[in-house]
Amino acid sequence: MHRITTLWLPLAVCLLIGNPVNVRTQGLPEPLPDETDAEAGATETPWANGRLQVAPGGRFLQHENGRHFLYLADTSWSLFERLTREEVDLYLKDSADKGFTVVQAVALWQLSRQGNAYGDRPLGLANGRFDPTEIITTGGADPSDAIAYDYWDHVDYVLAKAAEHGLYVALLPTWGNYVSGTTSYAVNMSSNIFTARSAKAYGEFLGRRYGHRPNIIWVLGGDRSAVYPNGDFRPIWRSMAEGIGRGATGEPLKWNDVHPAWDQLLMTYHPRRVDDPGSSLWFHEDAWLDFNGIESESWQVAQKVETDWDMSSPKPTAVLEGRYEAESAKESVLSAAAFEQRYQLYHAMFAGSIGYAYGHKRIWRLSTGAESWQDAMNDPGRTSMQHARRLFEGFQDAQLLHRLPDESLLDGLTRSGDPDDLLLAMRGGEGEFALAYSTNGRDIAMNLARLATGTADAFWFNPRTGEFADSDGRAASGAFRSVSTGVGASTTVFDPPGTPQAGNDWVLKLKLRSTAAATFRPTGPGTGDVVLRATSASIVGDEWRLIEDETAAGGTRLQERSDGTPKVLVPVADPAAFVEFTFVAEAGTAYRLWMRGQGPNYASDSVWVQFSGSATASGEPVYRIGTPDATFYSVEGCDYCGRSGWGWQDNGWDGFGPLIYFSESGPQTLRLQRRQDGIAIDQIVLSPGTYLSSPPGSAKDDKTIIAVTQE
């Protein structure tokens, strides 16, 4: 063990952190000159594009210059502890060569009490347990000097070497057991060492030491929930975040204060697999949390990502841990384990995640001997992760940053009896491209009318090889067919190469030939369509008002006041407040009612709808103004469908609602009255044909603006 000198931090630092921490040190080392120069002069590193940040819209990550960032991580939790410098070089070079953009590692790992590869510990021990108030450092950092080169010098080396290879490090300050004990918290708290005070001081140490590095992504947690039945550990995690923030920026940051200095850091939280969905359960609104973290069973990845996507205030989501290669129910067949890694990755990305963290049983442990980590570096799951980056090649950064999952692209069942066997699809924000993933190679029925109007080239992408292929699965450089998309296009079935079965996964890529000329569906209403906007509303009472909104049709939305009143269970025959629109309709014609709206949450996303002359198909009065009878519109069209931004829905729930007929031709009145407070609406459509069987736009994050037909 190293000879050490025990000194207290200077008084100013102790006052700054509010808790004296005994750091065995002769002064915290500055960045090594060669490291700083190398990073500053590297023009090809990712951070040459600027700091990582949450992209506008709150869904994905980008660099400051607008370059899209894919979180594609390799998991090596015990990296700082298990490997020598030479082994670090080998591992990080191979990770970069395999296309990973991030490696995930833990500063205080579960076995760190035994020391790292050089016998050095990060913290002092008290009664056999780590003491977080005693951080062990020594003067100097010469690796040839066993006295000088300490645990934290080795961490420095790993981070610098990762930067040399263009890799970000998702740095966990500690594994979660040191905050909340073992996974079975109620049974065993033996490894808990942190309090809120010591967590903040430890966080500040890390922030001061590593906050200057451009390739750090901070990850709190570590396979632990933040709240257990017998303990709430959010104050400790929040204190650690505050400490990191203060150490890195010099600002007295608070977890619930939206301070611009937080933008200098990128932070998330790594929960447990049983948490559903993950960090958003506890920290979604915290100022320090930039993106959410998920750990998941393989068959729950898409579901958990979708749950985060549907939250009313968007933040990006990353799958930080799934099932590992060679460590799953399917590990008896190596190719099956690789398949599981692939579909976890593509389920995550196609459901709206910023990316996925791959893992291998031997590599996260960095095992030696008969199950050496070095022997696992070329296993098929690990080598296939890089192909996801090739899939995104050819798309502009802005297109990737505005992509969104869109299940309405898929016509028919998206799930089979196998919980792993999903069909998932996403598209560009302007409908200029679409990607669909068939987990087991089932047919993909694509609703091409959901894309921009034009001609799209179709490609098969093989996730196993990273190659594009023809209809028979042979490598090909060009499209295997072209299809018409947008207005007037029909549903087309695409049959992936091979036989549907586990392991025969394929991606369908549709890309419009001319995105500059593409117009997102629809270009305009069809014959007989009634299209109204908020700007033509007549408002009675003080519950509704018109608000300028650049995202709304005509730049104005109709907004109902949010005042916390209970849901109105039955429409009122003579309401004191309502909104009315006038239009002309034809008697005996079946109209589908569509509205585009948004609501902040499930309790503020519906409205009662009535008409002056509406009737059933047989002519009986229904949904009439002046009666307690109405149909309703809800931004969320089914249980747990979620909502995000503007969305089109009809007057149905979990399926189409009743068609609207009118007993007489001529002028009609549509009335909206409160059902739930807080909803916003900008467009209303009554369609006898164009939108009779399909919506005018997306159910979430919609940008469709339809030309007005009646003022």
Q: Mind explaining what this structure looks like?
A:
The protein folds into 3 domains: 7-30 and 64-393, Glycosidases (TIM Barrel, Alpha-Beta Barrel); 404-512, Immunoglobulin-like, CATH 2.60.40; 530-687, Galactose-binding domain-like (Jelly Rolls). It contains 15 helices and 39 strands. Helix 4 (85-97) runs parallel beside helix 5 (151-164) and helix 7 packs parallel to helix 8. It is globular and about 95 Å long.
Topology:
Blueprint: E1 7-8, H1 11-17, E2 22-24, H2 33-41, E3 52-54, E4 61-63, E5 68-69, E6 71-75, H3 79-82, H4 85-97, E7 102-106, E8 123-126, E9 129-136, H5 151-164, E10 168-172, H6 177-180, H7 196-210, E11 216-221, E12 227-228, E13 231-232, H8 234-249, E14 267-270, H9 280-283, E15 292-295, H10 301-309, E16 317-321, H11 334-350, E17 355-358, H12 361-365, H13 380-384, H14 387-392, H15 397-401, E18 404-405, E19 423-427, E20 433-438, E21 444-447, E22 454-462, E23 467-469, E24 481-485, E25 491-494, E26 506-512, E27 530-533, E28 538-540, E29 544-548, E30 556-560, E31 578-585, E32 592-598, E33 606-611, E34 614-615, E35 631-634, E36 647-650, E37 661-662, E38 666-674, E39 680-687
Parallel strand pairs: 2-9, 6-7, 6-17, 7-10, 10-11, 11-14, 15-16, 16-17
Antiparallel strand pairs: 1-2, 3-4, 4-5, 8-9, 12-13, 18-19, 19-20, 20-26, 21-25, 22-23, 22-24, 22-26, 27-39, 28-31, 29-30, 30-39, 31-38, 32-36, 32-39, 33-35, 33-38, 34-37
Helix pairs in contact: 4-5, 7-8
